[in-house]
Design goal:
heterodimer, A: alpha/beta, 2 domains, six-stranded mixed sheet, four-stranded antiparallel barrel, B: Rossmann fold, Elongation Factor Tu (Ef-tu), domain 3, 4 domains, eight-stranded antiparallel sheet, 17 helices, 30% strand
Amino acid sequence: MSGTHTAALESEAIEIIREGIAVAARPVMLHSLGKDSCVLLHLARKAFWPAPPPMPLLHVDTTWKFRDMIAFRDRMAAEAEVRMIVHTNRKGVDAGITPFTHGSDHYTQVMKTVALRQALDAGRYDMILVGARRDEEKSRAKERIFSLRNARHQWDPKAQRPELWHLYNTRLKDGESLRISPLSNWSETDVWRYIAAEGIPIVPLYRAAERPVVERDGQLIMVDDDRMPLAPGEVPARRRVRFRTLGCYPLTAAVESDADTLDAIIAETLAADRSEREGRLIDHDAEASMERKKREGYF
Amino acid sequence: MAPTLRVVLCGSVDDGKSTLIGRILYDCRQVSADQMQRIEEDSRRYGTQGGAPDLALLMDGLQDERRQGITIDVAYRGFRTPRRRFIVADAPGHEQYTRNMATGASTADAAVVMVDARKGILPQTARHTRIVAMFGVRHIVLAVNKMDLVAWDRGTFASIDAAYRTVAEEIGLARVASFPVSALSGDNVTRRCAHTPWYRGPGLLAHLEGLEAEPPAARQPFRMPVQYVNRPNPDFRGYCGRIVAGDVSPGDPVRVSPAGTAAEIESIVVWQGTRDSATRGDSVTLTLKPDVAVSRGDVIVAAQDPLEAADQYRARLLWMGDEPLTVGRPYRLKLHTHEVGATVTRIRHRVDIDDGSELAAVQLELNDLGVINLATNRPIPFAPFDESRELGGFILIDRATNATVGAGTITYSLMRAANVKWQDFDITAEVRADLKRQRARCLWLTGLSASGKSTVANLLERHLVSESRHTYLLDGDNVRHGLNRDLGFTEADRVENIRRVAEVARLMVDAGLIVIVSFISPFQSERDFARSLFDKDEFMEIFVDASVETCARRDPKGLYAKAKRGEIRNFTGVDSPYERPERPDLRLDTEKLSPEECVELVIETLV
């Protein structure tokens, strides 16, 4: 692999991970159970081999993740070398906040953004590794690799530190933290090629299979469990679908696909005419909604 | 496929940078249907093209950018053509966002400098060109844009091209490729233009596709800065880093810079195994035989080609701080994996952005370029930036705000001894001290307000005088009222205050006196600066230690109470930090020891 495009991306990502960890007092890696998180964890294993990755994983469980994702998480947590911290916003659960009853915007605010802030405050983490890529969304394209968050975990897009060469300014004041994105320069295709080349395990939902879905506003929503309220006369149909991106099941749309192997997924990604996060309903709630969520401390 | 080419788009505001990249993405079919749909919606709201799709909106990802129709921060966008992959950094044109442009330029292989055909070369064109030249960007492409608005006039293109080449030549940029284009329509960018029969060259994109990303691999000696020491168990100690030059194999003789310790590469450890060799760009873990001491910041280098280490440099600097650069003020410097205290000891000149002339300057303002002398508080292994971006590029960080305020490139090291000739006098410090039957010293007392510095200093001086020593006590009061009467309490003034006190102490030591300095001096870099003025045994850093709580309880002048009420700002220990000495020569714990016991300890250490 040495000398190739993928090798260059891998070496750059490992350099970034090591740089963050070398200066960290309390490092953590956010793990969404998605493909990018899986790649990030694999890179951290490589960066510190033969030692295990020297940071815990943090997973924010909204209680609305796909069942496949939770099963995957539990298998992963059973591996001895990683410590997995799972956090849920209990107040949100007790208040009965769900994506169906409170709207995706409010639900995301309470069960994801606030939950993440709670978990980060509890751990007082300073260096936070995340699997964000610049090609996902255009406010992410603007973000530094080492991205400063204030004590309330907010991003200020107008006051980003200059980031020269590979010299990262990791100085922090009390309560501040850095979100570190080693995959900044990776594309969706790069991620898939790497998963294929390295044999990285991923959640099965990324592969096409027959799944029960309903069509709403032109989006295919999977009926993952019986908490999903169906409209009168609405009957889930079994269709061959897969997911390009994974979040909470009611808020993540599937795409029709026959791609059930990594090669087929790579071919489909290269030919795609729709962007990866189109199936993420929360990105489109309001204009510039990702930027706004990040200002509030969202991942 | 050729390696990914990183391109920065620069030039003045409204020259069409975001439009150019938008056009390229669109023509290369890199805009998905749903993105295009959103652009069309946004264009009706904010577009500058009368409702037609405004391709610049593909890149202007921040809400304020779309509202104001400008680029504020650099956006990175990857795309591919059948021939190669690109990562384009779309940089802002406004002068106030120059630091964001510099961010994009620092990692670029090529720069596309855009000029509006109607406006010609503007100050920002020259500024950006100087920055990409300083950062060693190898390929410069001039895009004379909006040619459609000057009816594709050949003479206009030729005169802008000639004017730009004059600037480029003065800066030292040898090769410039120029293109007459319309970013809006893609003419001479992605497609041939029907209006320019006089232009026969390739399109701009085709030109970029053919450029080399990396310089041809000349054989360079091996260099790897150590990022992280990996010690999972007592049997394994690996040094993690990314190779910045040359290649390496097990058995290769190496040295650890700056110490110079010799060793041999034992193995190159990678995931679940080892490798036979590794080369520039690879992230690896090395083990050494024998297992000599190595820490983060050291550089493992080929034994036959050691790396120079220095603590004084000549450098170019782009100033990015909102506050001007102040000579003598302590900053943090980051160079490869080293972070140390540093001060700019002199501004040699500021560079005139338009014509490159050297202007005298006492400070550098935001977005100024200059040439400086720089001192670090300990020697760091480095290479001139022209030889190595990784070992010669540095940033300066403000100690108070933590902002990244400077981007610099090392030109060469200044060996102080070789460059500064001191006047030799017959009467030396030693002669003067001998006459007083003592050894001259500087006893530097640091600690929080109310930690007991003044009490100890007074008692100490009385004790020394009672033994017929010749002393002088420098403290806030006698210095503030005279020598430093012109200084206030701003950050810059506090730095200058300490600098003057240290210099005065040095003169007094030279005169043969035992000087007691009693100053809060909260920053290690300031104390290190003071120490750097003296010979090894002349200076004693004495840490007068009491907790903030204890000091606040003592509070003889009521200052802590005032600070807590917000009546005094920047009060050390309350809303301004105190950096505990890392390695004081002596620590006096005034919570446990009486002033008399403290003085006794100092005297014991002195003897």
